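Lab notebook, bench 4. Still working through the backlog of constructs that have no structural model yet. Next entry is a single chain of 178 residues. Request: give me the structure tokens for it.
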Amino acid sequence: MNLTPSQTVGPFFSHALPWPDGPHVVAPGTPGSFWLRGRVLDGAGEPVPDALVESWQAGPDGRFAEAARPGVFRGFGRCGTDADGRWAILTVRPGSVPDQQDRPQAPHIDLAVFARGLLDRVVTRVYLPEEADANAADLVLASVEPARRDTLVAVRTGDGYHFDITLQGDRETVFFSV
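Model written out:
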């Protein structure tokens, strides 16, 4: 049997997979909505201009979209990056959901990044800085070495939060095997 080298996929993510309202987990003007914005960066700190960021989360009540009211909260967003690696998702504060042992997890938003050079997506979490007590009790966040936990906590901005995703290098975002 002859083995062939693996091939990465892309770079078609940011222009072939998004749809017009993909970045809107909730409709513009939804009470409590905010922008989660950031950049996708490579190991040298350079922007990745053709990546795709997907988000999944529970609603403020801790329920997922299929249990929520249709058209009000989708629970899922998708945004391609621009030439400067920027992406943005309009969403609402996530509620807490139970972990595998039925303990509450800190409110968080799951993100996946698809980009050229990756053989598969990478998956991370975004925690909110105002949830310090819940973050301290979260078993997933506690499993991350303390010096790297800050790569999972967003920074508050005027209209929401900022969260950069660094794919490799000294400031690499923590990614999870799922």
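Notes after review: The chain has one domain: 13-165. The chain is about 10% helix and 25% strand. Flag for follow-up if needed.
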